[in-house]
Structures are given as structure tokens and as C-alpha cells.
Amino acid sequence: MPLAWGAHYAGLRYTAVSARLTADELAYIVDDCGARVFVTSPYKEDVLAEVTAATPNVEVRFSIGGELPDHAPFEDAVAAQSSEGDPDWVSGTDMLYSSGTTGRPKGVKRTLVPEPLGTAGSISAMAQFLFGSQPGGTYLSPAPLYHSAPLRFCMGYLGLGTTIIVMEKFDPEQSLALIESHGVTDSQWVPTMFVRMLKLDEEVRSRYDVSTLRAAIHAAAP
Prior knowledge:
Elements: H1 2-9, E1 13-14, H2 23-32, E2 37-40, H3 45-54, E3 60-63, E4 72-73, H4 74-79, E5 93-97, E6 107-109, H5 122-129, E7 138-141, H6 148-160, E8 163-166, H7 172-182, E9 186-189, H8 191-198, H9 202-205, E10 215-218
Parallel strand pairs: 1-5, 2-3, 3-4, 7-8, 7-9, 9-10
Antiparallel strand pairs: 5-6
Helix pairs in contact: 2-3, 5-6
């Protein structure tokens, strides 16, 4: 999320990709989206040499959470920046890719509208007026952020002033535990997640107090 918000604050397009991609798949998206800055982690170290060689248009490469060859430490770059805002900043937007089931993944390049930074987006407005979400709530994202809905809902709820909890991997019981322990008020799911939670034993499901949850938003096909 800090990476997405950094690009958003800078008025840039940003592309999130799955950590499960092969070197060829990752290099294709990095090159196709026209990325000039690439940020990764040691988790992808086994394919980085191949990705680096195949993406010559990238101008700056960063590693987050550990050192990597030919990648500057992201944390050092952030620490060197000023914390002062700029009144002329405008909002950026995402450029996400399809799953590629009918060939190569296809990027959806949305128009960069020069709106002043802090302008409420459509998801923030929908959350507030349709679901009754309020600043100060807590939002749970149980899905990976390279998918459009999880990333955009997280960005929208953060813009509303909501605390965000992102699960590294969906687990039905852990989801219930997080709702209870963090007092989650809003969340966004897909039907398969509901099915997996309903398959938990009744004794397990009833173990957790989920009464704080006001909105369970869902999308996608069953």
C-alpha cells in the first residue's frame, strides 16, 4: 500500500503484479506498461536477473525488505525524501492487467485526470453513501492487491480515513479472527471466500465475535 500511495501522491500510473508470475510473464508486463521504476523484494530474487535483462527501459530499480543486486534499498530512498506536501500535487491512478486467459495479459490504461490530491474518488464516495462507511473504521482486504477490486477498494477506503488490514493469504478462520481482534467494520470478498468460511465447523465459526462488521461487499462470479 505505501508504494501505491506513493505513486498516487506523485500523480503517476502504477501497476501491481502477482508475485507468482514467471520471469517471462513479469518482464512482459513491466515492459508493456512502460515502467520506468520497478520495485520488488527478495521473494522474486530467483528470476530477477532474467527480468532485469528483459526490461531495459526501466531507469530505477528498488528492493524492499532486503538487498538485491542492481536494486537500491527502497527504504533508504523513502527516508531521503521530504515529508512536506506540495499543494500542486495531483492524484495518480492504477494501470492493471487482465489475467491473460486468451493470450498475453492486457493492460487497462485509464486517463490521468489532473484532480487535486485528496479529491474523493468514486469508491470512497460509494463506501460512504451506499455502505455507510465512515472515517475511523477498519477495512479488511482478504485478497491480493494485484487484483483490481482489492487494490481500488483499499485505496478508496484509505482515502476515506480508514485503517486497512491486508491479508498476505486468505484463510477462512484467520479472516474471522481478524474481524474480531481489529474490530473490522468493512470488507470486500469473492463468493468462494464465503463458501470456505461456511464450510468451517459451526463451533469454529461461533468462536469469533464479528458484530463490528457493517459492510461485507462482494463481487465476481460464484
